Amino acid sequence: MSSTLNAQVVDSIAATSTLVVGQAPAGAQAMVDLAAAHALGTLLHGAVHRHQQSAISGAAAATAACTRILAARRVAVPVPVPPPPPAASAAPRGSKEG
User: Under 8 Å CB-to-CB from 91, ≥6 apart: which residues?
Assistant: First the structure.
């Protein structure tokens, strides 16, 4: 059977086999790198999403607090009563008695 195969075909198959075997570690490493990059991208996407949701929750809480402050009843503060004027003496200040 080997006598019927062309030597060029055998060499081509051997070269292709060697090429595939030689490229296998690089291909496997590329797939590992691709999976790591995808996992990192997904992780960062989740982190950004959580940060945005936290900012939205904080803004909503601040808005609710401001709304409650502005909607609260205002209590009228009583105006202080001025003190009574000093009692007038019977004699004027500039006059001397006696």
Answer: 97
- The DSSP output letter for 98 is -
- Give the tens place of pLDDT for each residue, 8-31: 888 888 888 888 888 888 889 999
Question: Could you tell me if 53 and 59 are in contact, meaning their C-beta atoms sit under 8 angstroms apart?
Answer: no
Euclidean distance between CA atoms 51 and 74, whole angstroms? 37
Sequence spans of domains, the chain: 31-69
Q: How much is the pTM?
A: 0.48
Residues of the chain with pLDDT under 70: 1-4, 89-98
**Calpha distance 38→16 (Å, rounded):** 31
Task: Evaluate whether 61 touches 55 at the Cβ level (below 8 Å).
Answer: no
